[in-house]
Design brief:
About 3% of the residues have low confidence. The protein is α+β, with helices and mostly antiparallel strands. The chain has a six-stranded parallel β-sheet, with helices on both faces. It has a five-stranded antiparallel β-sheet with strand order 21-20-19-22-25, with no helix packed on it. It has three domains: 291 residues, HUPs (Rossmann fold, 3-Layer(aba) Sandwich); 153 residues, Isoleucyl-tRNA Synthetase, Domain 1 (Orthogonal Bundle), CATH 1.10.730.10; 91 residues, OB fold (Dihydrolipoamide Acetyltransferase, E2P) (Beta Barrel), CATH 2.40.50.
Length: 653
């Protein structure tokens, strides 16, 4: 593939000792979103994923299953291929380390480093963890377990080959200093610097050949250590050294991995190997945190983390949404929720909240209400003349700003940040409809005002469909279909206002995200089996008292009122939009119209119950409840914070 350098991004290759779960899916989805973004920009892009198949624990698992290692990895690796297809991953290659092409490149790397003196024969005596496939120092072991991972270690003495890692400490530190974007985020970068400054030791990179692994060149009694073997996969795919165009891909632009394999392997051993080969280092090694399940790391070995298929299937069963939409909802939750600087809690309740509030209430509602009004007021046809009239409007300005901010976030390898700024536009689209009130303009005979309000909402949705495509590709396609668009999205189209042609015939509004009824779905996703305990004696009932645990479930937040308006035929009710510090505004229905005029409320700080189940009041959904008291005269008094400079979203304790 001759030509300009291709944007080359990689996932780690995954151990074939179990099925993919939402943790491994998250890493892959982050890479997929970044790859799709670059393709939308018209850039040549290559996404690599695959499986790591030569670990000793894989051979042990195969023996336990009564299979040969090759038959075992052939079967298990298929789980990853099918799961990534299920998640709509757009990988360009899927590498397996048992493939002949990889075995050839590993042997070539070994020979070259051996010829240069970076690999030498010796004897290893120390600690080794089969579970981690890692050698540990004495200082890294306590009570027969690796301090870092908790895995059991064994004391081994054997003839091995070493990689002269100790020779690369100063060069690695210099490269890190000279290239600030090389290790991201800064928390991981600092961990690596500290690890290197502790002093790098030469690393044993082979083990006795027990029948599974890549033999050491000229010494078949040994096989190459799994981590030395696995890291080379990123180079194998380029066709190095025979393919004359291998540098179209190399060096990789981004290696994206979980934090457990970041410091020791991807940020230290792998760059040192490349330095020894005289090859360029990857542009960025990016590490993210773990998903925690009830405070513990989610993992296959603990059996406490669900598969993407199980989560999406359960979401589909409970919501009634199509399987493809539920896959995209899971994509949204995982990409937006994972942390790069720390860990994040994987929560069934949080997934349902994001589905209901951000996907159904915000995005789904914006599309559905806009198309319904267009049908009612304009026969479902995009009005003419409005594109030019709205080009300097609030939504046009914000859409340009959001597109630029999303682009900056993706350039900074922050897909979650890009989604966050995108949802500002989603929220603004809903808010602008409420402000412009096309139904009122229609009633007043303001035909041009109706056309402008509807076009602004429709064009905002078109731009959203472009910005959404890297993350929720199926949903983005559904949005475009309902808007009457048949062309493929291009990122450049998001930066231009007015590309939705007048006269376009839109489709009938079809809900994409049916809401989940939380009352009927109290346990929304599969959970671990509860522990079996002796039943406690029932406590004596006490009227009107709750426990501290029950009160702790109530989430009180400071909110700022953004807009307020009366609800037709409801004397006491106002419709409020409030900022609760979530990035998008919420809608509340409050019975305060006899005490407060709507025009006096915007800008006020109030206290709301943020995790109250939504309720529909007089046909209007209320997504929470504000706190108020009643004085002696029956007048309602809003509860407000003492200091008005407190930010929306602050917790009330």
């Amino acid at each position: 593939m001759p030509g300009d350098k291709t944007f080359y991004i990689t996932t780690p290759i995954y151990y074939v000792n179990g099925v993919p779960h939402v943790g491994s899916a998250t890493t892959t989805l982050l890479c997929d979103a970044l790859a799709r973004y670059h393709r939308l920009r018209g850039e040549p892009t290559f996404l690599l994923t695959g499986t790591d198949e030569h670990a000793q624990k894989v051979a042990d698992a195969a023996a336990k299953a009564g299979e040969t290692p090759q038959a075992f990895v052939d079967r298990i690796s298929q789980n990853y291929i099918e799961c990534w297809r299920f998640l709509n991953i757009s990988n360009d290659d899927f590498i397996r380390t048992s493939e002949p092409r990889h075995r050839r490149v590993v042997a070539e790397v070994f020979r070259r480093l051996q010829d240069s003196g970076d690999i030498y024969a010796g004897q290893y005596e120390g600690w080794y963890s089969v579970a981690d496939e890692t050698f540990f120092r004495d200082s890294e072991v306590a009570d027969g377990r690796a301090i870092e991972t908790g895995a059991v270690v064994e004391r081994v003495t054997e003839e091995v080959y070493y990689f002269r890692l100790s020779a690369y400490g100063d060069r690695l530190l210099q490269h890190i200093q000279d290239n600030p974007n090389f290790l991201q985020p800064d928390t991981r970068r600092n961990e690596v610097i500290a690890f290197i400054k502790e002093g790098l030791r030469d690393l044993a990179i082979s083990r006795r050949n027990t029948g599974w692994g890549i033999p050491v060149p000229e010494d078949p009694s040994q096989v190459v250590y799994v981590w030395f073997d696995a890291l080379i996969n990123y180079l194998t795919v380029t066709g190095w050294p025979e393919n004359p165009d291998w540098e179209v891909l190399w060096p990789a632009d981004v290696h994206l991995v979980g934090k457990e394999i970041y410091t020791r392997f991807h940020a230290t051993l792998w760059p040192a190997m490349l330095m020894g080969l005289g090859l360029g280092l990857p542009g960025t090694v990016l590490g993210h945190g773990w998903w925690l399940i009830e405070g513990e790391k989610g993992s296959k070995s603990k059996g406490n983390i669900p598969t993407p298929q199980d989560v999406a299937a359960d979401l589909a069963a409970r919501s009634g949404a199509s399987p493809e939409v539920c896959v995209d909802a899971l994509r949204y939750y995982l990409i937006r929720g994972i942390s790069f600087t720390g860990d994040a809690e994987f929560s069934a309740a949080a997934l349902v909240d994001r589905y209901n509030y951000e996907l159904a209430n915000d995005l789904g509602n914006l599309l559905h209400r806009t198309l319904n009004m267009l049908k009612q007021y304009a026969g479902g046809t995009v009005p003419g003349g409005a594109a030019a009239r709205t080009a300097d409007g609030a939504l046009a300005f914000l859409s340009r700003e959001v597109t630029q901010d999303a682009e900056r976030a993706m350039t900074a390898l922050d897909p979650a940040g890009a989604l966050s700024v995108l949802w500002k536009l989603v929220g603004a689209g809903n808010k602008e409809i409420d402000t412009q009130a096309p139904w009122k303009r229609h009633k007043a005979g303001d035909t041009e005002g109706v056309a402008d309000a509807l076009y602004a909402a429709l064009e905002t949705l078109r731009i959203i469909s472009v910005l959404l495509a890297p993350f929720l590709p199926h949903v983005a396609g559904r949005v475009r279909e309902q808007l009457g668009l048949t062309d493929a999205p291009r990122w450049a189209d998001a930066a231009q206002w007015g590309l939705l042609p007048a006269g376009t015939k839109t489709q009938e509004a079809q809900p994409i995200f049916p809401r989940i009824d939380i009352k009927r779905n109290a346990n929304p996703l599969p959970a671990k089996e509860p522990a079996v305990t002796e039943p406690a004696a029932p406590a004596a009932p006490t009227a009107d008292l709750i426990t501290i645990d029950e009160f702790a479930r109530v989430q009180l937040r400071v909110a700022e009122i953004k807009t307020a308006e009366r609800i037709e035929k409801a004397k006491k009710l106002l419709r409020l939009t409030v900022d609760v510090g979530e990035g998008t505004d919420r809608q509340l229905v409050a019975g305060i119209a006899e005490s407060y005029a709507p025009e006096d409320l915007p800008g006020r700080k109030i206290v709301v119950v943020a995790n109250l189940q939504p309720a529909t009041i007089r046909g209007v959904e209320s997504q929470g409840m504000l706190l108020a008291a009643t004085d002696a005269d029956g007048r309602i008094i809003l509860m407000t914070p003492e200091r008005l400079d407190i930010a929306p979203g602050a917790k009330v304790k």
